[in-house]
Amino acid sequence: MDYYPFKKYISSVEELEEIIKRAKNYRGLSDPTESFRGQARDGWQLQPSIARSFSNPGDVEKTERAILKDFLTELQSQNISSSIQSGYLNGSYHSEWLLIQQAQHYELPTRFMDWTGDWRIALFFAVSNRCEEEQNENDCFDGQFWIFLVPEEIWISDGDQSDYINQDPFEYKETKVLNSSTLHSSDYLIKIAQHRKRRQSGRFCIQFCQNVMIPLENQESYKPYLYKVIIPAKLKKTIREQLGITWDSIYLNKTPEEKEITDKIEKIVKRLKQKYFPTNGYTKNTI
User: Fold this and answer.
1) What's the domain range around 244?
2) How far apart are CA 170 and CA 165, in angstroms?
3) Across the strands, what pairs with 266?
4) Is 50 exceeded by the pLDDT of residue 173?
5) Is residue 282 domain-resident?
6) Which DSSP string corresponds to 33-83?
7) CA 161, CA 145: separation in Å to the nearest integer?
8) C-beta neighbour count of 103 within 10 angstroms
9) CA angle 115, 121, 125 (to 5 degrees)
10) Which residues sit opposite 144 in a β-bridge?
11) pLDDT class of 208 with cuts at 50, 70, 90
């Protein structure tokens, strides 16, 4: 956006780090609410994946309900529903909120838009692609790195006093950025999506169906809090090497049990994408 007197293009990782510090100081933030998102191509808008497939918000709501219901049913039918973390906070709908978060981390399209509290993770997604063929293609395009200086009034962190967990997520009409907690239970390692969320310092921007149809950067309420930095295409490979982050390190399929569960869930997600979004090709190169 044009609200910040900083460079729009970077020439190094160090330069981006300095921009982040200046942006935080520019707003006078004292709490770590700033959030980051990387997208492999400049020009892509800040919209959750499900909103890119529809022009009618009613279709977004209907599809999200249906695909999540099918997702849970398939997990249960294959006896792997235990890999999904159920609610652990004192809220009527905490399990439902957690299901959407974990489905999102398995790359199932939802209204939730991924952000992270770790700028290095966002930068990695801005310069990387899991598919080698698409990596080569994306390296021909500038990437984008977003800084969201989240207003205090829309920032929420988990706790038993959190109001959102007592509301149906499908009926929730507020815009919030959720810094969701992670429970370290005895079977934590098989809660793979929760594990991924923690490793990626994951956060979610949540909006009602009508709102997600408008890219976040075009919403007047949030324009002053968003700043975009362009990652030149020629720097992508160098930045990947400098970061030292790998897909394995953030997707965590290290043990045979983790890999087996992940393979099963990824097949479920693939089938559901083909069922509900037959003409779309989703690629995980944004956070």
Assistant:
1) 13-276
2) 12
3) none
4) yes
5) no
6) -EEEEEESSTT--S--GGGGG-S-HHHHHHHHHHHHHHHHHHHHHTT-GGG
7) 33
8) 24
9) 85
10) 39, 230
11) very high
